[in-house]
Amino acid sequence: MDYSRRILWVVLLLGLVARVWMAIATPIAFDEYQWFRVVDTVDLRPSSIHVPMHGDEHPPGHVYWTAVGTWAFGQNLVGYRFASVVLGTALILFTFLLASDLFDRRTALLAAAFCAANEYLIGGVSRLSTEKSYLTFAILAVILYVRTTRNPTTRGYALTGLVFGLGTLTKQTLLLWLPVFFIDTLRRRDVRLQWGTIGPWLATVIFLLAISPDVYWNLTASRQPGLSNVGIEYQLSKLGVGEWSWGPTSLFLRFLVYPLVDPDIHEYPAMSLLPGGILLAGAVLSLFLSRTANARFLQVLGWGPFLFFSLFGSFPDDYSAFWWSDLSVVPFIILTASVVTVVTARFAARTSWLICAGVCVPFAVSAIQIARTGENAFVSTLLRPPQSAVDRALRRQRFRFAEYESVDHAAISRVGTWCLPVSRVYVASLRDYLMELDTPNDANPRNPRQDEGHKQRMRDQLQRFGTCGS
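User: That's the sequence. What structure does it adopt?
Assistant: Structure tokens below.
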């Protein structure tokens, strides 16, 4: 086994450990409560079969992937987050493979390390049971496209269409890459001639079949009363024109979120200054240092969504979300790795590897910090929002269970008789919450004297944890 394969296995293992830990040690996020309700309706028994045609304001793809986890492990955090952890870890491998196909092995190893230790990919994609796992399908589709256009086969085109369709069935943002693929096939003469074969047409048909559940839902059910706000029309209504959105930039520079994007602090972790700044700077430098056809293709895939949501990503009546442009993250990771490789090629081999390792340090530190604290918002003190805003956000996340008191958090925090580490968080939070209920204030407007039933339900929640969390 050569050194690069050993390094890759170590990177994959560390990435998996970080994602598994976040999955079993962090409380349920707001979006997950919405997704869990849809996943729980999946029923494959012949007598009562039910397969949802839509997710939570998004296509149903991730409902299906999550249902595999709940089928295997039950309706607990391991089951609900199993698909996210597996797909998130697979993304590290696919990042390595794509970088290998487009550049070289050293670039691929560096890109895999950046991916494994990226805060957003650990805490906001691989940990949460939401539609953001579409990134794994997106990168796999690019790998299949690159390899199939180099060595055309009908099977390759069919797999490309299928994977791209499954990614779009998970989140429609992936459609932004569709014109890039199409234009690329027309631009390259050797690929353009392949339209005279069955391969590209078969890929198109399979892609349309893969997304047909979401197309059908949007054409029919989404127009029913009470559902018109959760389909593709609702997603498109979020786009606004005329004002530059700092959302995509703040995805890579977290300190911009609070002052420029959203006065609220979300549970999705944008990237802290050093790792995010390195990726953004690398993507910019690649425009000048990486001028190969492969680099240009990847630059279009990365900068396309980034600029699209910067120009059209402002809510007409709300704030822009920094995670909209996450389709740019992996292309920027690979481009940055290629820039580091180009720059370090001027040095001796040992010095070059030391520089690469040094660049990885900020990513490793931020990954350790977010895994250690379990908090998904502004864990760094550098350029953070006012402490009062951070405390308010973290308190809201800690007491999220009070908004969803009908959910049995004790059951979700167990796998059989094994208490997941998240139990300690819930038990401590429930005790603090019950103490606060006796002293209403501005941060806690609920008056327990008017809602003794709620207080008793919270006591019951705490009692159901039993010895877990003690």
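The chain has two domains: 3-226+238-373, 399-464.
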